Fold this sequence. Notes:
Elements: H1 2-18, E1 25-28, H2 35-45, E2 51-53, H3 59-69, E3 73-77, E4 85-86, H4 94-114, E5 118-121, E6 131-132, H5 135-142, H6 145-148, H7 170-189, E7 193-197, H8 210-217, E8 223-228, H9 229-239, H10 243-251, E9 256-261, H11 285-293, E10 298-301, H12 307-318
Parallel strand pairs: 1-2, 1-10, 2-3, 3-5, 5-7, 7-8, 8-9, 9-10
Antiparallel strand pairs: 4-6
Helix pairs in contact: 1-4, 8-10, 10-11
Amino acid sequence: MQHEEHGAxxxxxxxxxxxxxxxxxxxxLVGMKSLEAxxxxxxxxxxxxxFELSYQMSAEFLxxxxxxxxxxxxxxxxxxxSTEFFPNLxxxxxxxxxxxxxxxxxxxxxxxxxxxxxxxxxxxxxxDLAMPSSYAARKPILSRxxxxxxxxxxxxxxxxxxxxxxxxxxxxxERAKERLVALARRYARAGVRLAVENxxxxxxxxxxxxxxxxxxxxxxxxxxxxxxxxxxxITSFAFGxxxxxxxxxxxxxxxxxxxxxxxxxxxxxxxxxxxxxLKEQGFPLEEVLKIVAASRANLIVExxxxxxxxxxxxxxxxxxRGIL
Length: 324
């Protein structure tokens, strides 16, 4: 109890600086696989280096990295430390839900231990099965016959905007929403915000569109959003809406606690979740950064290349000094 109270106080301090006042610029550790990479990033960025814990960090790596990053962590991406399965709060299988909630409790303990004020979550999937965190193990599940009728673009198994209204999708979305509210309230009591991330529009994934994010934002005062600008970029081509207006719509909810910033090589008929540098050719970087930097959300670089360079771009945008 004493640890939780101390961690909650640290998290509330991070909460105040990271989403209700001046935005914090940081980087996801998903792009750093070694202590040397973390040290190099801190050397380049300096004392203002801030981090989001990654769902790919093992308990061992997390413990090894702790001396370098403790006091610099603003958020954690569930599950952390890494687990065999992603949380699936949409499942009708009680054992899958129970394990998901256990893993989310462990992630809350991690967030409190590092003083993180936000936990980012992929809320669930359109299946009762546990969803492997490894893409190699996840892909066969997402290729099962029950998903095929909803595939509109074979490359990437991309759905269309009608997917969210389909009989197979709705009950999973409703179960996830109900459990998200309960989990968000649990997190809030500990001083941590639970932020649901919009996923890329692959069949089998939940919550892709601006409209769905607004629905989530309105569910409960304690439930927050993570706006992934790269995922929304893909969705805008698949669903046929104006990308920048979609960003403004989600930001306009007032519930975005954190933004994941990365680019990809998507275009009409091409859907790629590359997590590339923000300067990826064709990505409307300047317009995107103007929109998100005007919010009070944390700005987290989630690219897997040139992390320091991308951080400096975002820092300049957040400070109103342009991006180049």
